[in-house]
Design a protein that fits this description.
Helix 1 (26-40) packs across helix 2 (49-62) and helix 3 (69-79) packs across helix 4 (88-99). The protein has helices at 26-40, 49-62, 69-79, 88-99, 109-118, 132-140, 152-155, 162-172, 186-195; strands at residues 4-5, 14-17, 123-127, 149-151, 179-183, 200-203, 220-222, 228-229. The chain starts with a strand and ends with a strand. It has 230 residues and is an alpha/beta fold. The chain has 9 helices and 8 strands.
Length: 230
């Protein structure tokens, strides 16, 4: 844990970042959406026991973004048939549109990216997901800051597959072993990047490395992006 000074690691010539729960707090964005949805669409009074229970139910079904949204809204519609008269497809589409308003850059992200730019260290973003990720990047202003963006469903391969890591490093003009990968997911981000020889920084936020992945620890463990010093 602790500070990672890129100045002390001259071999790092570029940086690649994950997006969700790395450059922005996706869990906080979902919770913001869930709280508003629970009040406005489901009719629960804020801070009431039923409100808190419903928000937690939504967070569990979301599973940090990995849960099926059609399944979530199918179950939700069964629980609230009178309040949710739209089709499941409409509810899913509206969810993705509304989530954008709750999406904000992670603390320290803008400052870090500005420091990298000032130091002429190229950086990019590699994210799993659909083309909808592009709207999120534009909302956050990251499309105007980063030198490359690789979205799995657009590129045709998803993390932890090697192809997407190799392509991003190639776009930045560096060898994989000189490109630091920063992400929050132990397998998709860290193990995936390790497989192509990238040094890795795990944004662990106080969590310990999963015991099942012993033998493949990241090079650096960080509690926040602000711990990266350029």
């Amino acid at each position: 844990m602790g500070q990672l000074s890129l100045r002390n690691h001259r071999g790092i010539q570029a940086v690649l970042f994950d997006l969700d729960n790395t450059l922005h707090d996706r869990d906080a964005a979902f919770r913001g959406w869930a709280e508003r949805f629970t009040t406005e669409r489901l009719g629960h009074l804020p801070a009431s026991p039923s409100f808190l229970a419903q928000v937690e139910w939504l967070a569990e079904r979301d599973d940090k973004g990995y849960g099926s949204k059609p399944l979530l809204f199918t179950e939700l519609q069964q629980r609230y048939p009178e309040q949710l008269s739209e089709s499941v497809e409409e509810l899913v589409t509206n969810f993705h549109n509304d989530l954008i308003a709750h999406t904000h850059l992670e603390t320290g992200a803008a400052a870090l990216l500005q420091q990298l730019a000032s130091a002429s260290i190229p950086f990019g973003i590699v994210t799993n997901g659909s083309a909808r990720q592009q709207r999120k990047l534009e909302h956050l202003g990251l499309d105007r800051l980063t030198e490359c963006i690789f979205i799995s469903e657009v590129f045709g391969a998803r993390k932890p597959e090697p192809a997407i890591f190799h392509a991003a490093a190639s776009h930045l003009g560096v060898a994989p072993n000189t490109c630091l990968f920063v992400g929050d997911h132990p397998v998709n981000d860290i193990v995936g990047a390790q497989k192509v020889g990238m040094p890795t920084a795990w944004l662990c936020r106080g969590e310990t490395w999963p015991a099942a992945l012993v033998g493949t620890p990241p090079d650096f463990c960080l509690n926040a992006l602000s711990e990266i010093d350029v």
